[in-house]
Amino acid sequence: MARIRDRTEDFKDVARHTAVSLGYDESKLAAIMASFIIHKPRERSSFTKAALKTLESIGALEQFILNHRKDYVEMQRTTEQERDSIEHEVTAFIKTCKEQIDILQNSINDDEANSKGWLGRKGDNSNADTIAHKHGVVLILSEKLHSVTAQFDQMRAIRFQDAINRAMPRRKLKRETVSKSADISTPNKSDIRELDEIQPEPLTVQQQLLDDETRALQVELTSLLDAVQQTETKMVEVSALNHLMSTHILHQAQQIEHLYEQAVEATKNVELGNKELSQAIRRNTSSRTFLLLFLFVLTFSILFLDWYS
Question: Where would I find the SNARE-complex protein Syntaxin-18 N-terminal domain in this sequence (predicted)?
Fold first, then answer.
């Protein structure tokens, strides 16, 4: 048998001579020869492009949070409006990334629905592996987004805690001011009573109205401060609940991934079971044929022996 000869070098020489005869310059000739060694990268699928774009968006979000961390946490650097603007931008960014991940998940569900038949998958194992790989990509993106949102939740908790800490001394100071003003108002009333004989009656009524308005304003401000403090406390609790909910959602995503793997394995087991059933049916048919043939031969032998005897 003749030995197989590698003609790759001969093909390269022919390609070189043909390129030179066609008048190619050195750059084109080098590109042609390099194409034999360096293969062009495969064109990425739409899912891969979308996943890379989502990953870049999450990376940009993380970089934005790191760049504005001090501006958001340290109260003396920026105003409340600027911090609210940063929070609004981060929230919009997170929503956009979540929508992109949902689009990827929906595309996987569509591919999975199109590849399913009556009892399982129509395609081979490569299709199932591709879908499982896509599920893994979506899970990694979800975990990455969850870690970034957890960082921002920590920053938000620090901001709300600082706001509560700043509100508590003001509340105590306000109460002390109200108590002092109440104590001071008592001698003022006695002085006013002593001066009632000297001052005219309209001035006394006007002073009394001003005192009543001042007390009402102080009570209103105190109640407003209490409401603000309760709102800030509830916001901190809501932020903690959001973080807890995102953690549970991530855990559910992992459970769904595990269930998906079990479903793929169950589908393979069903296919193997169908094959075993088919083989068992064929074996049963062959055994019946053999049994009938054996009975026929046995009957014929008995009849022959009876006739012979």
Answer: 5-86
Q: What is the pLDDT of residues 17-30, one digit of tens each?
A: 888 888 888 888 78
Whichever domain contains 110, its CATH number is: 1.20.58
**Is 88 part of a structural domain of the chain?**
yes
CA dist list (Å): 126 to 109, 176, 256, 262: 17, 75, 21, 17
Cα–Cα distance between 259 and 151 in angstroms, integer? Answer: 29
Q: Is residue 280 assigned to a domain?
A: no
Q: What's the structural domain count of the chain?
A: 1
- Mention every residue, 6+ apart, whose C-beta is less than 8 A from residue 271: 119, 120
Q: Which domain holds residue 189?
A: 46-257
Among 120, 81, 97, 88, which residue's Cα sits nearest to residue 270? Answer: 120
Non-local (6+) Cβ contacts of 14 within 8 A are none
Q: Quote the pLDDT of residue 172.
A: 52
Q: What does pTM read for this prediction?
A: 0.47
Residues whose CB is less than 8 angstroms from the CB of residue 72 and which lie 6 or more positions away in sequence, other chains included: 78, 83, 86, 87, 155, 159
Instruction: Write the CB contacts of 178 (distance below 8 Å, at least 6 apart in sequence).
Output: 218, 222
Question: Given this model, what pLDDT does residue 168 score?
Answer: 64
Beta bridge partners of 116: 121
Of 112, 105, 131, 151, the residue nearest 253 (C-alpha) = 105
Assess if residue 107 is contained within a domain: yes
Cα within 13 Å of Cα(283), Cβ side:
6
> Which residues in the chain come in under a pLDDT of 70?
1-6, 36-42, 115-126, 167-203, 205-206, 240
Q: Is residue 15 part of a domain?
A: no
Angstrom distance (rounded) from CA 157 to CA 144: 20
Give 212-216's long-range contacts (Cβ < 8 A, gap of 24+): 214/181
Check residue 109 and give its pLDDT. Answer: 83
